[in-house]
Design a protein that fits this description.
The complex is a heterotrimer of chains A (250), B (223) and C (76). With 250 residues, chain A is mainly alpha-helical. Helix content of chain A is 78%, strand content 0%. The two termini of chain A are 33 Å apart. The chains are: A mainly alpha (250), B mainly alpha (223), C mainly alpha (76).
């Protein structure tokens, strides 16, 4: 068990192993996303109340899921890096931050675009959208902190502490935004009404969610691999991989 | 152990009293902004009363944000912070003492002055008690949470703006429960719910924040 | 399961919601593509940088080995 743990912590091992997984995972992700998008756009029935604008949820919901899950990935990687001083975990944490921010951005934009035909305005202070916005700020804080430290090690530790504090706070923020919303707003059409969703609508959503999870894994691995290369660019194995004596590039 | 706590508390409060600007600035800021609101919006009492709970709480947030930046800054510059971090005393308690001192010189005056400001914004009578009670607990939470951000950014050159980006999202629950308690009371509902949550937030951040702040200080000092 | 639209025109318009649906999808896919492309591009630059440095070092070694040749070459 510990041996496995240490091996996983070695950036070099991860770089080489993930190179083997990556083609398969990317293939699955692309396939799932293409099926999901075609299904959601063309074949799922339209919603009785929202009409065709409902098809936006096939992007919005998976993106919001991953935006939130991505924060936990980032914070947990930060915790592992902080506690066990695992280099790889630090790299995963640093890579996860911009990905999560991008997914949060997608969720926000699709939510706003969905709002126009449904509520007649791009921005409504709806509970979900508001907590997404807060999540976006949390991501931006971690990214900004990461880049304002000059030393890599201090940057890692500082953003790990911040993302852990954020992780502890996320449930509180979400709950309080929910509470605030029920206080001020009569129930309008929600972006998702999962329990009442027809299976014909739900199955493509499931495919999209799976596809987004695979996509997230692919992008996280890609970013982490690049980060590994960057930090280990002076080590022997990277030098050897690029080509002995600079003859053959990879 | 307790002596170190008291020593730091005494020292920080004393320093703040010698250097009066530290206490006065957030309070003056609070006053000035509250003066700006009727000028920018309307002098009409009924409309001011409507927005008073929210405005007062947003101002409290901003005032706390302004003052929390200096929580560790002067200690960092003159090297006291380094001594604190390497001292054999538990850093958790030392940090807690500094936060408590910060609350005594920023949160508490704000809380005590809040009724005056509420009056200036023609806050209805029912709003005063939840305003003061909420601020009493809420400003403590703000100091505790802000300390984490202050510790993370103390060694950075342009820490101020970053600090607000880091800390503001974490302030949100306090804002929500604080201002809605006032609003509810004005509307004639009970304030037990939001106040209980505010108390829970205080207890929770009292538990977590000094710990996270101590960790953040170690990162800031030694990388 | 069947295609829900009668014609391509219909599919693009989505009974008036087309612009919203399509722009949401296009923006999202663009951001997702950026997420894939940006690490790949950074990786390519990094590898090229490492390669360049290796060449430079190899060159320098070569020069040190044949410093005399280099000097004469330079004079030409």
């Amino acid at each position: 068990m510990w041996q496995w743990f240490h091996r996983l912590g070695s950036p070099r091992w991860f770089y080489q192993a993930s190179g083997k997984w990556l083609p398969w995972l990317s293939g699955v992700a692309v396939l799932l996303l293409m099926i999901g998008i075609a299904w959601g756009l063309g074949f799922a029935p339209q919603d009785a109340k929202q009409g065709n604008s409902f098809r936006i949820i096939y992007i919005h919901v998976p993106a919001s899921f991953l935006a939130l899950a991505g924060y936990y990935v980032m914070a947990l990687a930060g915790a592992v890096g902080l506690i066990w001083k695992m280099k790889l975990a630090d790299m995963v944490m640093k890579s996860a931050a911009p990905i999560g921010a991008a997914l949060t951005f997608i969720a926000l934009v699709t939510g706003a675009v969905w709002g126009k035909p449904t509520w007649g305005t791009y921005w409504v202070w709806d509970a979900r959208i508001t907590s997404m916005l807060v999540l976006f700020f949390l991501y931006l804080g971690v990214i900004a902190l990461q880049y304002s430290y000059s030393g890599q090690d201090a940057a890692n530790k500082a953003s790990a502490v911040l993302s852990l504090v954020g992780m502890v706070n996320i449930p509180i923020i979400y709950k309080s935004v929910d509470w605030w919303y029920t206080l001020h707003q009569p129930a309008t059409i929600k972006l998702t009404e999962a329990p009442s969703m027809h299976p014909d609508m739900f199955h493509p959503l499931l495919v999209m969610i799976l596809g987004f999870y695979c996509f997230y894994a692919v992008v996280l691995i890609l970013n982490t691999r690049t980060e590994i290369l960057y930090r280990e660019r002076r080590t022997r194995w990277v030098q050897d991989m690029v080509g002995p004596a600079g003859e053959s590039g990879q | 152990m307790g002596q170190g706590f008291l020593a730091i508390l005494r020292r920080d409060v004393l320093l703040a009293f010698r250097n009066r600007g530290e206490i006065a600035n957030p309070v003056i800021f609070f006053f000035i902004v509250v003066t700006l609101i009727p000028l920018g919006l309307t002098p009409e009492a009924s409309r001011l009363a409507e927005i008073a709970p929210g405005i007062l709480w947003v101002m409290a947030l901003l005032a706390s944000l302004l003052s929390v930046e200096g929580l560790f800054l002067s200690d960092y510059r003159d090297g006291t912070l380094e001594q604190l971090v390497i001292s054999p005393q538990p850093l958790y308690l030392m940090v807690l003492a500094k936060i408590l001192a910060h609350w005594l010189i920023s949160g508490l005056p704000l809380t005590l002055l809040a009724p005056v400001l509420g009056m200036m914004l023609s806050l209805p009578e029912a709003g005063y008690f939840p305003l003061v009670l909420g601020l009493l607990m809420g400003t403590a939470v703000l100091s505790l949470v802000g300390a984490i951000g202050a510790a993370l950014t103390v060694a950075l050159r342009k820490g101020g703006l970053l600090l607000s980006l880091i800390v503001m999202p974490l302030y949100m629950p306090v804002l929500i429960f604080g201002s809605s308690a006032v609003q509810r009371s004005v509307d004639g509902f009970s304030i037990e719910g939001p106040m209980a949550v505010m108390g829970a937030l205080l207890a929770f951040s009292l538990l977590i924040s000094p710990f996270a702040t101590a960790g953040a200080l170690r990162v800031s000092m030694h990388g | 399961m069947m295609f829900r639209f009668d014609s391509l025109q219909d599919f693009l318009q989505m009974s008036g919601h087309g612009p919203y649906v399509w722009s949401a999808y296009v923006i999202s896919i663009a951001v997702m593509l950026w997420l894939v492309i940006s690490p790949l591009r950074r990786r390519r630059q990094l590898l090229a940088g490492v390669l360049r440095q290796q060449r430079r070092e190899a060159m320098r070694q070569h020069q040190e080995e044949s410093a005399d040749d280099f000097v004469t070459e330079n004079r030409k």
